[in-house]
Amino acid sequence: MKSHFLFPYWCRYLGWGLVILHVPLSLLGHAHGMTNIMDSQPAGTGPFTGEHMFFICTSLMMVAGLFLVAFAKEKVEDEQIWHIRLDSLRWAIYVNYLILITSLVFIEDVGHMLELNLWVPLIFFIVRFRWVIFRLNRSAREE
Question: Are 22 and 65 in contact (CB under 8 A)?
Answer without folding.
Answer: yes
